[in-house]
Amino acid sequence: MNQDPFRAFNIHDSRLLWAPTVHHFYEESCYFFLLRMENPAAGDVVRTVGHLLARALISSFCIYEVFGYYDVLVRMWATSRRRNRFVQVLESNKHLIEDAREFQASSGILYLWAEGQGLPDAEVTKHASEIMALRKAIEDKEALTMESVDPLMSLGLIHKLPKREAPYIKVYIALSRTSRTAGERREAEYVREAIEGAKDLLEDVSIYSGIGFANYLIKAVVSEFSKIDGITTKLLAPLLQRFQLRPMTLIIANNDAPQSDAIDSEGESSLSLYHLELMLGTDSAGLINKLSTQEKESLASIFNEFKTLLGTPFGTVFEGLLMARLREDPYLLNEKLVIILRIESLLRRFLLDLYKNKLGDEWFIKVKQAAELSGIASDKNPAKNYTLHDFLVVTDKLVANGIMSRNDVEDVLGEGWKTKVDQVKSIRNEIAHGEGFHTEYVKEEWEKVARSVCNVGSVYNALAASYDAAPV
Length: 472
What we know:
By secondary structure, this protein is of the alpha+beta class.
Protein backbone atom coordinates (compact mmCIF):
# COMPACT_ATOMS: atom_id res chain seq x y z
CA MET A 1 0.00 0.00 0.00
CA ASN A 2 1.18 3.56 -0.71
CA GLN A 3 2.51 5.64 2.17
CA ASP A 4 -0.52 7.88 1.71
CA PRO A 5 -3.37 5.93 0.08
CA PHE A 6 -5.59 8.98 0.49
CA ARG A 7 -3.65 10.73 -2.29
CA ALA A 8 -3.56 10.14 -6.05
CA PHE A 9 -2.42 11.98 -9.16
CA ASN A 10 -4.58 10.21 -11.74
CA ILE A 11 -8.38 10.45 -11.81
CA HIS A 12 -8.59 6.75 -12.73
CA ASP A 13 -6.55 5.45 -9.78
CA SER A 14 -8.06 3.89 -6.71
CA ARG A 15 -7.70 5.90 -3.48
CA LEU A 16 -9.13 6.09 0.00
CA LEU A 17 -11.48 8.79 1.28
CA TRP A 18 -12.46 9.62 4.82
CA ALA A 19 -16.19 9.34 5.34
CA PRO A 20 -17.93 12.72 5.54
CA THR A 21 -18.82 11.96 9.17
CA VAL A 22 -15.10 11.89 10.04
CA HIS A 23 -14.56 15.30 8.45
CA HIS A 24 -17.62 16.63 10.31
CA PHE A 25 -16.17 15.29 13.58
CA TYR A 26 -13.16 17.55 12.99
CA GLU A 27 -15.46 20.49 12.13
CA GLU A 28 -14.64 20.37 8.42
CA SER A 29 -17.09 21.00 5.59
CA CYS A 30 -16.87 20.16 1.90
CA TYR A 31 -16.49 23.13 -0.45
CA PHE A 32 -16.23 23.44 -4.22
CA PHE A 33 -14.88 26.47 -6.07
CA LEU A 34 -15.32 27.15 -9.76
CA LEU A 35 -12.49 29.40 -10.90
CA ARG A 36 -12.07 31.35 -14.09
CA MET A 37 -8.42 32.23 -14.52
CA GLU A 38 -7.34 35.66 -15.70
CA ASN A 39 -4.97 34.11 -18.25
CA PRO A 40 -5.27 30.30 -18.33
CA ALA A 41 -2.81 29.98 -21.20
CA ALA A 42 -0.04 31.77 -19.27
CA GLY A 43 1.10 28.78 -17.26
CA ASP A 44 0.20 25.65 -15.32
CA VAL A 45 -3.20 26.49 -13.83
CA VAL A 46 -3.22 23.42 -11.58
CA ARG A 47 0.14 24.40 -10.10
CA THR A 48 -1.05 27.99 -9.67
CA VAL A 49 -4.20 26.94 -7.81
CA GLY A 50 -2.16 24.47 -5.75
CA HIS A 51 0.03 27.32 -4.52
CA LEU A 52 -3.06 29.30 -3.51
CA LEU A 53 -4.40 26.32 -1.55
CA ALA A 54 -1.02 25.89 0.15
CA ARG A 55 -1.09 29.53 1.23
CA ALA A 56 -4.44 28.79 2.88
CA LEU A 57 -2.94 25.74 4.68
CA ILE A 58 -5.38 23.41 2.92
CA SER A 59 -4.06 19.94 2.18
CA SER A 60 -7.32 18.09 1.46
CA PHE A 61 -8.22 19.02 -2.11
CA CYS A 62 -8.74 17.96 -5.73
CA ILE A 63 -7.85 20.31 -8.57
CA TYR A 64 -9.64 19.62 -11.85
CA GLU A 65 -9.27 21.46 -15.10
CA VAL A 66 -12.66 21.73 -16.81
CA PHE A 67 -13.89 22.59 -20.29
CA GLY A 68 -16.07 25.65 -20.78
CA TYR A 69 -16.39 29.13 -19.30
CA TYR A 70 -14.63 28.16 -16.08
CA ASP A 71 -11.13 26.74 -16.06
CA VAL A 72 -10.76 24.94 -12.72
CA LEU A 73 -13.00 23.10 -10.27
CA VAL A 74 -11.57 22.76 -6.76
CA ARG A 75 -12.99 20.32 -4.23
CA MET A 76 -11.74 20.68 -0.66
CA TRP A 77 -12.48 19.77 2.93
CA ALA A 78 -11.69 22.58 5.35
CA THR A 79 -12.68 24.24 8.59
CA SER A 80 -14.51 27.53 8.28
CA ARG A 81 -11.30 29.37 9.27
CA ARG A 82 -9.29 27.78 6.47
CA ARG A 83 -12.11 28.27 3.99
CA ASN A 84 -12.17 31.96 4.92
CA ARG A 85 -8.41 32.11 4.50
CA PHE A 86 -8.69 30.59 1.01
CA VAL A 87 -11.30 33.19 0.07
CA GLN A 88 -8.93 35.92 1.28
CA VAL A 89 -6.12 34.41 -0.80
CA LEU A 90 -8.37 34.41 -3.88
CA GLU A 91 -9.37 38.03 -3.28
CA SER A 92 -5.73 39.08 -2.90
CA ASN A 93 -4.82 37.38 -6.20
CA LYS A 94 -7.29 38.93 -8.59
CA HIS A 95 -4.47 39.26 -11.10
CA LEU A 96 -4.70 35.45 -11.32
CA ILE A 97 -8.38 34.77 -10.65
CA GLU A 98 -10.95 36.61 -12.77
CA ASP A 99 -14.03 35.02 -11.22
CA ALA A 100 -14.75 32.55 -8.42
CA ARG A 101 -18.00 30.84 -7.46
CA GLU A 102 -18.51 28.68 -4.39
CA PHE A 103 -20.63 25.70 -3.41
CA GLN A 104 -20.85 24.29 0.12
CA ALA A 105 -22.20 20.79 0.67
CA SER A 106 -24.24 21.82 3.65
CA SER A 107 -27.20 19.45 3.73
CA GLY A 108 -25.93 16.05 2.67
CA ILE A 109 -23.23 13.99 0.96
CA LEU A 110 -23.88 10.54 -0.47
CA TYR A 111 -21.17 8.27 -1.88
CA LEU A 112 -23.34 5.86 -3.85
CA TRP A 113 -20.24 3.89 -4.87
CA ALA A 114 -19.32 3.18 -1.23
CA GLU A 115 -20.29 -0.07 0.46
CA GLY A 116 -21.80 1.81 3.40
CA GLN A 117 -22.41 5.42 4.31
CA GLY A 118 -20.57 5.18 7.63
CA LEU A 119 -21.42 5.68 11.27
CA PRO A 120 -23.61 8.58 12.43
CA ASP A 121 -21.70 11.69 13.44
CA ALA A 122 -22.30 10.99 17.12
CA GLU A 123 -20.65 7.55 16.90
CA VAL A 124 -17.37 8.75 15.35
CA THR A 125 -15.98 9.96 18.68
CA LYS A 126 -15.76 6.36 19.90
CA HIS A 127 -13.12 5.68 17.24
CA ALA A 128 -11.20 8.96 17.48
CA SER A 129 -8.05 7.25 18.78
CA GLU A 130 -7.91 4.84 15.81
CA ILE A 131 -8.44 7.72 13.40
CA MET A 132 -5.69 9.76 15.05
CA ALA A 133 -3.30 6.80 14.95
CA LEU A 134 -3.81 6.37 11.21
CA ARG A 135 -3.52 10.11 10.55
CA LYS A 136 -0.25 10.22 12.49
CA ALA A 137 1.13 7.24 10.57
CA ILE A 138 0.39 9.03 7.30
CA GLU A 139 1.88 12.32 8.49
CA ASP A 140 5.01 10.49 9.67
CA LYS A 141 5.24 8.84 6.23
CA GLU A 142 5.03 5.34 7.65
CA ALA A 143 4.27 2.46 5.30
CA LEU A 144 0.63 1.48 5.83
CA THR A 145 -0.81 -2.02 5.75
CA MET A 146 -4.36 -3.14 5.10
CA GLU A 147 -4.47 -4.29 8.73
CA SER A 148 -4.18 -0.66 9.84
CA VAL A 149 -6.94 0.48 7.49
CA ASP A 150 -9.42 -2.41 7.46
CA PRO A 151 -10.97 -1.78 10.92
CA LEU A 152 -11.96 1.77 9.94
CA MET A 153 -13.12 0.63 6.50
CA SER A 154 -15.35 -2.02 8.04
CA LEU A 155 -16.99 0.70 10.15
CA GLY A 156 -17.59 2.86 7.09
CA LEU A 157 -15.24 5.56 8.37
CA ILE A 158 -13.00 5.08 5.34
CA HIS A 159 -14.18 4.38 1.80
CA LYS A 160 -12.24 2.97 -1.14
CA LEU A 161 -12.93 4.58 -4.49
CA PRO A 162 -12.52 1.90 -7.20
CA LYS A 163 -9.93 2.05 -9.94
CA ARG A 164 -11.17 2.73 -13.49
CA GLU A 165 -9.56 2.27 -16.86
CA ALA A 166 -8.04 5.24 -18.69
CA PRO A 167 -10.93 5.67 -21.20
CA TYR A 168 -13.32 6.64 -18.39
CA ILE A 169 -14.31 10.30 -18.27
CA LYS A 170 -15.00 12.13 -15.00
CA VAL A 171 -17.84 14.65 -15.00
CA TYR A 172 -19.58 16.92 -12.53
CA ILE A 173 -23.21 17.91 -13.03
CA ALA A 174 -24.44 21.02 -11.23
CA LEU A 175 -28.20 21.30 -10.77
CA SER A 176 -29.56 24.72 -9.83
CA ARG A 177 -33.11 25.80 -9.16
CA THR A 178 -34.43 28.51 -11.40
CA SER A 179 -35.38 31.81 -9.78
CA ARG A 180 -39.08 30.96 -9.86
CA THR A 181 -38.76 27.72 -7.88
CA ALA A 182 -38.01 27.23 -4.22
CA GLY A 183 -37.53 23.47 -4.07
CA GLU A 184 -40.08 20.85 -3.02
CA ARG A 185 -40.04 18.50 -0.07
CA ARG A 186 -39.29 15.39 -2.17
CA GLU A 187 -36.83 17.10 -4.48
CA ALA A 188 -33.63 15.67 -2.96
CA GLU A 189 -35.17 12.18 -2.74
CA TYR A 190 -36.26 12.35 -6.38
CA VAL A 191 -32.82 13.51 -7.50
CA ARG A 192 -31.24 10.54 -5.76
CA GLU A 193 -33.74 8.10 -7.22
CA ALA A 194 -33.13 9.47 -10.70
CA ILE A 195 -29.35 9.18 -10.32
CA GLU A 196 -29.55 5.66 -8.91
CA GLY A 197 -31.76 4.69 -11.83
CA ALA A 198 -29.14 5.77 -14.36
CA LYS A 199 -26.49 3.16 -13.57
CA ASP A 200 -26.15 2.37 -17.27
CA LEU A 201 -24.89 5.95 -17.75
CA LEU A 202 -23.11 6.95 -14.55
CA GLU A 203 -20.69 5.08 -12.29
CA ASP A 204 -18.91 5.98 -9.02
CA VAL A 205 -21.58 8.54 -8.25
CA SER A 206 -21.36 11.03 -5.39
CA ILE A 207 -24.22 13.43 -4.66
CA TYR A 208 -23.60 16.70 -2.81
CA SER A 209 -26.57 18.81 -1.64
CA GLY A 210 -25.93 22.36 -0.55
CA ILE A 211 -25.88 26.03 -1.39
CA GLY A 212 -23.89 28.22 -3.74
CA PHE A 213 -23.48 28.02 -7.50
CA ALA A 214 -25.78 24.92 -7.44
CA ASN A 215 -28.27 23.14 -5.22
CA TYR A 216 -26.93 19.70 -6.13
CA LEU A 217 -23.51 18.71 -7.39
CA ILE A 218 -23.20 15.22 -8.84
CA LYS A 219 -19.83 13.60 -9.46
CA ALA A 220 -19.58 10.53 -11.69
CA VAL A 221 -17.56 8.78 -14.37
CA VAL A 222 -18.80 7.64 -17.76
CA SER A 223 -17.26 4.92 -19.88
CA GLU A 224 -17.97 6.62 -23.21
CA PHE A 225 -18.08 10.25 -24.27
CA SER A 226 -21.43 9.66 -26.03
CA LYS A 227 -23.05 8.90 -22.66
CA ILE A 228 -22.60 12.51 -21.61
CA ASP A 229 -25.30 13.48 -24.10
CA GLY A 230 -27.49 10.74 -22.67
CA ILE A 231 -27.18 12.33 -19.25
CA THR A 232 -29.11 15.34 -20.48
CA THR A 233 -31.68 13.58 -22.64
CA LYS A 234 -32.46 10.58 -20.42
CA LEU A 235 -31.51 11.55 -16.90
CA LEU A 236 -31.89 15.30 -16.53
CA ALA A 237 -34.95 15.93 -18.66
CA PRO A 238 -37.39 14.62 -16.02
CA LEU A 239 -35.66 16.63 -13.30
CA LEU A 240 -35.81 19.75 -15.43
CA GLN A 241 -39.45 19.20 -16.19
CA ARG A 242 -40.67 18.40 -12.69
CA PHE A 243 -38.47 20.57 -10.49
CA GLN A 244 -37.15 23.22 -12.88
CA LEU A 245 -33.54 22.29 -12.10
CA ARG A 246 -31.12 23.86 -14.53
CA PRO A 247 -28.06 21.69 -15.36
CA MET A 248 -24.44 22.59 -16.00
CA THR A 249 -22.12 19.76 -17.02
CA LEU A 250 -18.43 20.11 -16.19
CA ILE A 251 -16.16 17.67 -18.02
CA ILE A 252 -12.81 17.04 -16.33
CA ALA A 253 -9.98 17.77 -18.77
CA ASN A 254 -6.90 16.58 -16.85
CA ASN A 255 -6.36 12.92 -16.08
CA ASP A 256 -3.38 13.81 -13.86
CA ALA A 257 -5.40 15.91 -11.43
CA PRO A 258 -3.91 16.02 -7.90
CA GLN A 259 -6.40 14.50 -5.46
CA SER A 260 -6.04 14.17 -1.69
CA ASP A 261 -8.29 13.63 1.28
CA ALA A 262 -6.78 14.66 4.61
CA ILE A 263 -7.93 15.98 7.97
CA ASP A 264 -6.78 19.54 8.67
CA SER A 265 -8.15 19.94 12.18
CA GLU A 266 -7.78 23.23 14.03
CA GLY A 267 -6.10 22.49 17.38
CA GLU A 268 -4.39 25.00 19.68
CA SER A 269 -1.18 24.79 17.67
CA SER A 270 -3.14 25.39 14.46
CA LEU A 271 -4.63 28.57 15.91
CA SER A 272 -1.14 29.76 16.88
CA LEU A 273 0.10 29.02 13.36
CA TYR A 274 -2.84 30.96 11.95
CA HIS A 275 -1.84 33.99 14.03
CA LEU A 276 1.76 33.44 12.96
CA GLU A 277 0.69 33.52 9.33
CA LEU A 278 -1.20 36.76 9.86
CA MET A 279 1.97 38.26 11.33
CA LEU A 280 4.45 37.00 8.70
CA GLY A 281 2.11 37.30 5.72
CA THR A 282 0.19 34.84 3.57
CA ASP A 283 3.36 33.69 1.78
CA SER A 284 4.36 31.96 5.02
CA ALA A 285 1.33 29.63 4.82
CA GLY A 286 2.91 27.45 2.17
CA LEU A 287 6.10 27.14 4.22
CA ILE A 288 4.11 26.22 7.33
CA ASN A 289 2.19 23.61 5.39
CA LYS A 290 5.43 21.84 4.41
CA LEU A 291 6.38 21.19 8.04
CA SER A 292 5.72 17.87 9.71
CA THR A 293 3.22 17.70 12.55
CA GLN A 294 6.02 17.71 15.12
CA GLU A 295 7.71 20.69 13.45
CA LYS A 296 4.44 22.62 13.36
CA GLU A 297 3.90 21.97 17.07
CA SER A 298 7.45 23.14 17.82
CA LEU A 299 6.94 26.35 15.84
CA ALA A 300 3.54 26.97 17.42
CA SER A 301 4.94 26.37 20.91
CA ILE A 302 7.68 28.98 20.52
CA PHE A 303 5.30 31.49 18.95
CA ASN A 304 2.68 31.03 21.65
CA GLU A 305 5.23 31.24 24.47
CA PHE A 306 6.98 34.41 23.29
CA LYS A 307 4.38 36.28 21.22
CA THR A 308 4.37 39.05 23.86
CA LEU A 309 7.77 40.06 22.43
CA LEU A 310 6.03 41.26 19.27
CA GLY A 311 5.98 45.03 19.05
CA THR A 312 9.00 45.35 21.37
CA PRO A 313 12.58 46.23 20.34
CA PHE A 314 13.25 42.46 20.29
CA GLY A 315 10.22 41.88 18.04
CA THR A 316 12.05 41.92 14.70
CA VAL A 317 14.57 39.41 16.06
CA PHE A 318 11.69 37.15 17.11
CA GLU A 319 10.11 37.39 13.67
CA GLY A 320 13.45 36.64 12.05
CA LEU A 321 13.95 33.53 14.17
CA LEU A 322 10.53 32.26 13.11
CA MET A 323 11.12 32.99 9.44
CA ALA A 324 14.57 31.36 9.58
CA ARG A 325 12.90 28.15 10.74
CA LEU A 326 10.26 28.28 8.02
CA ARG A 327 12.84 28.88 5.30
CA GLU A 328 15.36 26.52 6.92
CA ASP A 329 17.81 29.39 6.39
CA PRO A 330 20.97 29.17 8.56
CA TYR A 331 22.23 32.55 7.33
CA LEU A 332 19.09 34.35 8.43
CA LEU A 333 19.26 32.52 11.75
CA ASN A 334 22.87 33.56 12.31
CA GLU A 335 22.03 37.12 11.32
CA LYS A 336 19.43 37.27 14.07
CA LEU A 337 21.65 35.54 16.64
CA VAL A 338 24.01 38.52 16.46
CA ILE A 339 21.61 39.90 19.06
CA ILE A 340 23.56 37.85 21.64
CA LEU A 341 26.67 39.93 20.98
CA ARG A 342 24.61 43.10 21.10
CA ILE A 343 23.20 42.09 24.49
CA GLU A 344 26.67 41.36 25.85
CA SER A 345 27.92 44.73 24.65
CA LEU A 346 25.00 46.57 26.22
CA LEU A 347 25.36 44.59 29.45
CA ARG A 348 28.99 45.64 29.84
CA ARG A 349 27.97 49.23 29.27
CA PHE A 350 25.04 48.95 31.69
CA LEU A 351 27.06 47.37 34.52
CA LEU A 352 29.86 49.92 34.17
CA ASP A 353 27.34 52.76 34.37
CA LEU A 354 25.68 51.04 37.34
CA TYR A 355 29.00 50.94 39.25
CA LYS A 356 29.52 54.64 38.64
CA ASN A 357 25.99 55.52 39.72
CA LYS A 358 25.78 53.32 42.82
CA LEU A 359 29.36 53.43 44.11
CA GLY A 360 30.10 57.11 43.56
CA ASP A 361 33.59 58.56 43.09
CA GLU A 362 35.24 55.46 44.60
CA TRP A 363 33.65 53.07 42.12
CA PHE A 364 36.98 52.28 40.37
CA ILE A 365 38.73 51.32 43.60
CA LYS A 366 35.82 49.21 44.88
CA VAL A 367 35.49 47.37 41.56
CA LYS A 368 39.22 46.66 41.43
CA GLN A 369 39.12 45.31 44.99
CA ALA A 370 36.21 43.02 44.13
CA ALA A 371 38.03 41.92 40.97
CA GLU A 372 41.17 41.03 42.91
CA LEU A 373 39.12 38.94 45.35
CA SER A 374 37.53 37.19 42.35
CA GLY A 375 40.84 36.27 40.71
CA ILE A 376 40.71 38.81 37.89
CA ALA A 377 44.08 40.10 36.73
CA SER A 378 45.03 43.31 38.54
CA ASP A 379 46.25 45.02 35.38
CA LYS A 380 42.81 44.90 33.77
CA ASN A 381 40.98 48.23 33.49
CA PRO A 382 37.20 47.93 34.13
CA ALA A 383 36.43 50.71 31.69
CA LYS A 384 38.45 49.18 28.85
CA ASN A 385 39.43 45.54 29.32
CA TYR A 386 36.72 43.71 31.25
CA THR A 387 34.89 40.92 29.47
CA LEU A 388 31.24 40.22 30.22
CA HIS A 389 32.39 37.32 32.39
CA ASP A 390 34.55 39.74 34.40
CA PHE A 391 31.63 42.11 34.90
CA LEU A 392 29.34 39.29 36.04
CA VAL A 393 31.89 37.93 38.51
CA VAL A 394 32.62 41.40 39.94
CA THR A 395 28.91 42.20 40.22
CA ASP A 396 28.27 38.98 42.15
CA LYS A 397 31.17 39.81 44.50
CA LEU A 398 29.93 43.38 45.10
CA VAL A 399 26.45 42.03 45.93
CA ALA A 400 27.85 39.27 48.16
CA ASN A 401 29.94 41.81 50.09
CA GLY A 402 26.94 44.13 50.57
CA ILE A 403 28.53 46.94 48.57
CA MET A 404 25.69 46.80 46.03
CA SER A 405 22.14 45.45 46.23
CA ARG A 406 20.87 42.67 43.98
CA ASN A 407 17.83 44.87 43.39
CA ASP A 408 20.07 47.49 41.77
CA VAL A 409 20.37 45.12 38.81
CA GLU A 410 17.07 43.23 38.93
CA ASP A 411 14.99 46.39 39.07
CA VAL A 412 16.21 47.11 35.54
CA LEU A 413 16.95 43.72 33.97
CA GLY A 414 14.34 41.65 35.77
CA GLU A 415 14.53 38.65 38.07
CA GLY A 416 16.60 35.76 36.75
CA TRP A 417 18.37 37.89 34.17
CA LYS A 418 21.77 36.28 34.80
CA THR A 419 20.42 32.75 34.20
CA LYS A 420 18.91 33.90 30.93
CA VAL A 421 22.22 35.38 29.81
CA ASP A 422 24.08 32.20 30.79
CA GLN A 423 21.75 30.13 28.60
CA VAL A 424 22.84 31.84 25.38
CA LYS A 425 26.59 31.56 25.96
CA SER A 426 26.78 28.09 24.45
CA ILE A 427 24.79 29.28 21.42
CA ARG A 428 27.21 32.18 20.97
CA ASN A 429 30.09 29.70 21.00
CA GLU A 430 28.38 27.40 18.48
CA ILE A 431 27.86 30.31 16.12
CA ALA A 432 31.45 31.50 16.63
CA HIS A 433 32.72 28.05 15.64
CA GLY A 434 30.56 27.96 12.51
CA GLU A 435 28.22 25.21 13.68
CA GLY A 436 25.16 27.29 12.92
CA PHE A 437 25.85 27.67 9.20
CA HIS A 438 24.20 24.38 8.30
CA THR A 439 20.59 23.61 7.41
CA GLU A 440 20.60 20.67 9.82
CA TYR A 441 21.43 23.06 12.68
CA VAL A 442 18.27 25.02 11.89
CA LYS A 443 16.12 21.90 11.69
CA GLU A 444 17.53 20.08 14.72
CA GLU A 445 18.55 22.86 17.13
CA TRP A 446 16.08 25.61 16.30
CA GLU A 447 13.61 25.14 19.14
CA LYS A 448 16.36 25.02 21.79
CA VAL A 449 18.09 28.06 20.27
CA ALA A 450 14.89 30.04 19.80
CA ARG A 451 13.69 29.41 23.36
CA SER A 452 17.01 30.42 24.91
CA VAL A 453 17.39 33.55 22.78
CA CYS A 454 13.77 34.61 23.28
CA ASN A 455 14.15 34.13 27.04
CA VAL A 456 16.88 36.77 27.00
CA GLY A 457 14.64 39.05 24.91
CA SER A 458 13.28 40.76 28.02
CA VAL A 459 16.85 41.62 29.06
CA TYR A 460 17.51 43.14 25.64
CA ASN A 461 14.29 45.16 25.80
CA ALA A 462 15.31 46.57 29.18
CA LEU A 463 18.76 47.51 27.88
CA ALA A 464 17.29 48.94 24.68
CA ALA A 465 15.01 51.17 26.74
CA SER A 466 18.02 52.48 28.64
CA TYR A 467 20.29 53.01 25.64
CA ASP A 468 17.88 53.52 22.75
CA ALA A 469 19.34 50.48 21.02
CA ALA A 470 17.88 49.28 17.74
CA PRO A 471 17.27 45.55 17.05
CA VAL A 472 19.29 43.60 14.50
